User: Which sequence fits this backbone?
């Protein structure tokens, strides 16, 4: 079992590494290959993510559901395990003979953008049309159509208001694709 | 002196790298070896840490005290130096001819869990039975029996209340060891 | 064009790697070489940075202006692109056929210290004599003479008050240079 997991993880990393070379040349081809790899390793992809950075880390493949048009930036962590529960048990004088963690699923809706260095804590559920700002620490349920930021992360605006506000600005310097 | 430090650091990293391979196979053996390495390099270990991730970084070995049953997650930084003081001195028209930093110790109590990507600033003192949530920026003194999170990190609950609350939940999906 | 950028980036990384070896031996020589490299690659340096960590990342070389005596700690990110705008457009039923991002400049004044793991969001303008605490997520305009921290980052004190307060302490343990 353990050996099987180690081999599986090592294979996943080798394949990821090979696919990662593509990102500098053709980010669409990269994402096509990466989506396939994630599916083969048991990921629950509902639709097609737009982009998932190679440095984004998922601590569990089976308990994470990713929606359509998802963007996951660099160094984002999806945490489904929480081993701090062992520390909590010891504090009330229970002495588990092995570490005990809490396992909770993460579910991400459609059209979600997750900014770099963010952490999604176990049990996070994100609705549709959501922007998670860079560096956010997210827990709990994030409603549809929201822009979220901070540590702890809170809803800071409605994504539709944000879209309209930016469009009205005169001095926008827009850029297409990953120019 | 400088050469001595460079050799010492390089040796430490090589040994860390070798030990790091163990973590995939046997995390207890890994931790036993890593504890020994930390002690040999001057670390003040009071008791036996449960787990310290290889990517956790300590910017000083002699000014950090670690308690029993400590867990340190990935990418945690223990900072004992603060060189921003030079910037502060320049702002009041003092021109030090070399960078001047503030050095302050870090002391961690027993049964403490430090979540991933957290930073402990110089002078941080953490009591016994404490959970530091992922991504926390911690400074100052954290009392016994607390759960701490945020940037800036604040006490968000009593760890014993948290333990009891989780135990009462009916839908807990618990997992043993680093399954 | 694309090939040109890839070659340019690869060359930059190779040169950075070579320069990076210097940092263990002579941090002044390292910084002299790194400043030259940044200038050659189109960076707008006003004056001479004191230190820029090799792991600090700039997602654009032409839209970032760095002031004199700047210190940039490990893993700091300067973001000038924001592709979450595409997610916002989709939320109001606009379907751009390619990703659309917002581009905004970053301007850093003189005598600024940026603590580790901080992120500067597109459009950030930092005045003179500013300390950005470790782990800060910074956006908008930061006034002269301020100490800033948190996620979201806010002004927590005047840098001159901070300098005087630290100097008055009796128990300071100061250290010169990167001892």
Assistant:
């Amino acid at each position: 079992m353990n050996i099987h997991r180690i081999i599986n993880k090592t294979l996943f990393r080798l394949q990821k590494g090979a696919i990662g070379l593509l990102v500098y040349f053709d980010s669409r081809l990269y994402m096509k290959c990466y989506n396939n790899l994630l599916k083969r390793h048991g990921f629950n992809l509902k639709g097609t993510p737009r982009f998932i950075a190679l440095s984004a880390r998922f601590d569990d493949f089976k308990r994470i559901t990713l929606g359509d048009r998802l963007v996951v930036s660099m160094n984002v962590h999806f945490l489904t395990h929480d081993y701090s529960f062992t520390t909590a048990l010891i504090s009330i004088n229970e002495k588990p003979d092995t570490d005990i963690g809490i396992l909770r699923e993460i579910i991400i809706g459609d059209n979600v953008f997750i900014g770099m260095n963010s952490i999604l804590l176990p049990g996070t559920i994100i609705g549709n049309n959501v922007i998670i700002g860079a560096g956010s620490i997210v827990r709990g349920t994030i409603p549809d159509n929201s822009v979220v930021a901070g540590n702890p992360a809170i809803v800071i605006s409605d994504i539709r208001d944000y879209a309209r506000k930016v469009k009205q600005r005169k001095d926008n310097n827009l850029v297409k694709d990953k120019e």
